[in-house]
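Title: Comparing notes on inverse folding

I've been comparing how different people in this forum approach sequence design from structure. To keep things fair, I'm posting one structure and asking everyone to reply with a full sequence. Here's the target:
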């Protein structure tokens, strides 16, 4: 597999372009509801409802309603739960700018495992818009399939009219990286503290 044919740069959103930089809100929820460290993330992201919404089977309201039922909380308390849960999420503006700068030379794509209605949230909360932030935004709940299922990478390649080894893909989950590598996609496994822009540039400079 050659590293000299990259035509498309594909970034994950949650955990890469948008990251939880401050866990204060989630820590407060864990203290309030007597959760273990990290349990609030699991209850939100790893529930059956969350998995179903990630592939478009149910609306994301069902996720929060299930949490409200589990914790026996009313609507007002649920809204505060949601506010605290998302309070530490920040967009990486430097990475966002870099992505826009390379659009003249590369096809740019955001590929996200995300719940229904996520496209609207990206636009309203973060100003992330298809055709402006990136050429394409592909969201699992709209496609009916999620990473690391190989089918989502097939859809990606078909959508952008690229071969697998034309693609550089960045994700924070190793299982998504390994699935992409199996198909011949170039990858960068993002980890906290990594200078991702320089890492991407070093791969593109080999073109």
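Reply #1:
Here's my take.
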């Amino acid at each position: 597999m050659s590293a000299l044919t990259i035509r498309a740069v594909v970034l994950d959103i949650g955990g890469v372009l948008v990251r939880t930089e401050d866990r204060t809100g989630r820590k407060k929820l864990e203290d309030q509801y007597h959760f273990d460290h990290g349990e609030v993330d699991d209850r939100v992201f790893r529930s059956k409802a969350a998995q179903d919404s990630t592939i478009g089977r149910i609306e994301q309201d069902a996720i929060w309603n299930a949490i409200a039922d589990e914790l026996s909380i009313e609507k007002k308390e649920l809204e505060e739960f949601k506010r605290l849960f998302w309070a530490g999420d920040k967009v990486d503006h430097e990475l966002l700018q870099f992505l826009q700068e390379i659009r003249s030379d590369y096809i740019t794509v955001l590929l996200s495992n995300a719940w229904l209605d996520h496209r609207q949230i990206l636009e309203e909360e973060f100003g992330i818009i298809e055709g402006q932030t990136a050429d394409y935004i592909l969201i699992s709940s709209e496609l009916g399939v999620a990473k690391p299922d190989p089918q989502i990478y097939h859809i990606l390649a078909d959508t952008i009219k690229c071969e697998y080894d034309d693609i550089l893909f960045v994700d924070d989950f190793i299982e998504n990286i390994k699935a992409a590598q199996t198909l011949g996609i170039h990858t960068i496994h993002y980890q906290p503290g990594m200078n991702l822009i320089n890492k991407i540039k070093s791969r593109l400079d080999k073109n």
